[in-house]
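Issue: ligand-bound run for adenosine-5'-diphosphate - logging full I/O for the record.

Environment: standard queue, default settings, no custom constraints.

Inputs:
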Amino acid sequence: MATKRIAVLTSGGDAQGMNAAVRAVVRTALDRGAEAYAIYEGYQGMVDGGDRIRKMDWDSVGGMMHMGGTIIGTARSEDFMTREGRLQAACNLIKEGIDGLVVIGGDGSLTGANLFRQEWPSLVAELAECSRVSSDEATNYPNLAIVGLVGSIDNDFYGTDMTIGADSALHRITEAVDAITSTAASHQRTFVVKVMGRNCGYLALMSGLACGVDWVLIPESPPDVDNWEEVMAERLRAARKAGRRDSIVILAEGARDRYGNPIGSTQVQQALEERLGEEVRVTVLGHVQRGGRPSAYDRTLATLLGYEAVTTLLSAKPEDEPVVIGMKSNRMTHLPLMECVQKTQTVAEAIAAGDYEKAMSLRSASFTDAFQTLKTMVRALPHTHEDDRKRFRIAILDAGAPSPGMNTVSKAAVRLGLDMGHVMLGISNGFEGLAENEVEEMNWMSVTGWASRGGSELGTSRLVPTGSGLYAIARFIEDNEIDALLVAGGWSGYEAVYNMTANRGNFPAFNIPIVCLPASINNNLPGSEFSIGADTALNSIVDAVDKIKQSAVATRRCFVVEVMGHWCGYLALMSGLATGAERVYMNEEGVTLKDLQKDVEKLTRGFEAGKRLGLMIRNEYANPIYTTGFMCSLFEEEGHDVFDVRPAILGHLQQGGDPSPFDRIQATRLARLCLEFLIEECEKGSDHSAFIGLQSGQIKFHDMRDFERMVDISCQRPKEQWWMELKRIASLLAKLSPETEL
Ligand code: ADP
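Outputs:
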C-alpha cells in the first residue's frame, strides 16, 4: 500500500495554539511512517497549489510551539467558496498524492471542509472527465479522509468544552481587565470593556467571573427588562456606596437587548455617564485577544488534538464521514463534523430569532452554572433574608502551601454564603490560626478584589494538628459556634481534616460537616483531576522556560529545569508537553543510571546533528540521589565539548502569581458547590465530611474516609493519576528526527 500522505492547514481567524496542533500533526504522522504536508495560507493555498503545499520534516515544526498565531498562515478564501476553486484544490491534492487532511479552524472553515468532503467524488469525476487527472489517479483517490480541529478564540463550537485559543484569549482579557481595574480603582472610575464573541458570551462571562466585575452583557441572555440601563447604573451606584472603588462592565461584541437590537459600547458608556454623572471610559480589546503566546492549556490541548487527529486519519476507512475531535470532560471525543457545525449554527440562529432560552440550553452546564454564579457575585450587597431560616456559622480556612486561587475561593464562599443568609467566618493562618482562635466574621466588602489576587489573604500554614493541637482546635470550633468548615488546601489540609474526622470520638466538636477543596499547585490530591493553582503554576513554568530557551539561541546548551510537585510529576509532565521538552523525569517512573546514560547519548547525537538547545524537565523529587546538580554535572562531563549544561531551579515563583482564568473559574465553581454541600448537610443535621473534585467532567464528593484508600500515603499522591497516559504522547513528540533517533 502506498504511504499515507497527510496534510494540515489552518483557516479562518487565527488562534493561539494552532502551531502546537500543526507540530503534533506533522510529528505524529512522521512517527507513524506517513508523509506530512503543510498547506500554507489556508484553503487559498490549497487552491493555489505549487509551493503553498510543502512537504514537512521533523525539524520544520521545531521551535514554534510558543508562538502566537499560525506560522503556516491562514486566510479567508473567496476562491474556495466556489466549486471551481474546490475543483482546483482537489486537483492539487491528488497531484500531491494527499489522501488525508486535517483542517484547523472555526465553524466557517469546518463547514467548508464538510462541503469539500461531500463533493469529493463528484469533483474527482469532473477532473477525470476533463482529463485534469488521469483515470488511475481518479481511482486511487475515491475519497478524502478529513478530520477537523476547532481553532477559535470564541469557544463557540458545539461538541467541545474548549476550542484551541479560547484559554489564551481569556488570559489576554483577564490581564487587561486586572490592569484596568487598578487604574479604575485609583481614580474611582467606571470602564466599559468590550470583548470578542459575536454569538457566544463565553469570553465575556468567564472573564467577568474571573475578574470580579460589576456587570456583564452577553448575547445568550439579554437584559430581561426595558430599563436595563437604569438597573445596571443602580447596581454600579450601590456598589460604590458599599465601598467599591472601581466599576467595570464587560460587553460581548454580540450583546443585544431583548428586542434583538445590538448594544454598543458607546451606548453603554452614555447610559452610565448620564446616570452616574461621571466620565466613563471605553476599552475595546480587539485583536489583542487573538495575539500573544499561547497559554499552557492551549499548547497541551492543541498537541493532544493534533496527535489524535492523525491517529484517527490513519485508521479511517475511505467511506468514513469527517469527524471533529474535541475535548469533553477532559477526554478527547470524536463527533460527526456536520452535526457539530449544524448545532453551532443553531445557537447563532436562535440568538438571531430572539430565542434566548434555546441558545442558553445549547450551551454547556458549566456555562449556565457560571452565569448563575455571576448573577450573585456581581450584587452590590447580599439579598436580605427576613424569613426565619436557620443561619449557619460557616468558617473557611486555607491550609498547606499557598496556591493561586485560594483567595478566589474565599471571595466566592463569603459572598455566596452571605447571599444565602449565613454567617461567614474567616480563619487566619490555617489550622495554626484556628488553634490560636484567629477567627473573624467576614462581610461582603471584606473580600473585594480578592478574586484576582495571588497568595492567601487569609494566611495559611502547613500544620497538621495532632494530640493537644486537636484539643485547641476543638475548643475554638465550639467557642465560635462553628457549624461547618470549608478547607481550601493541599495535602496537609486534607490530612488535617482526615485526622479530625478520625478523632471525632474524642472531640465531639468535630461532628460538623467539613469539606476539603483541592488547592495545591502540585495537583496531587485524590478525587480531583485538577486542583486550584496547578494551572497558574504551569503557566508560570511555561513562561519561565520560554525565556530560558530564548537565552540560549546561539549556543549548544542543555538546560535541566527543576519544577515543584513533591512526589507528583504532574507539573513536570504537563510543562514538558507544553514546552516540547525532550525528557521529563518524575518520581512515578524513577530515574536510573542507564536512563541517564541513554539521555546523554541522545543529547550528544542531537547536538552533533545540529540541534541548538536541549531541555530536560525534572520533578523536584524525581530521585533523591540523581539531583538536578548531579544530572547537570554528569551531562556536562559526558557532553564533552559538544554541548554545555545549565541548571534552572524555578523555585517559589511557581507558588506565586495571580491566578490564571481557569483557576479562578474553577475556584468559584467549586467554592459554590462546597458551600451548597455544607449548608445541605447542616440542614440535615449531618456531620458528613468530604473532599470535592472534578473527575471526568463531573463534580464529585468523596467521603473523607476514602482519603487513605485513594492515595499512596508515602508518596503523597493519588493512586490513580489520569495524566500519566499522556507521557507516551509527550515522549513521541519530543523525539529527535527519525534520522538522528536510533
Ligand atoms: P472561521 O473558520 O474562523 O469561522 P470563516 O467563516 O471566515 O472563518 O471561514 C474561513 C474560510 O473557510 C472561508 O474564507 C472559506 O474559504 C471557507 N469557508 C467558510 N464557509 C464555507 C462554505 N460554506 N463553503 C466553502 N468554504 C467555506
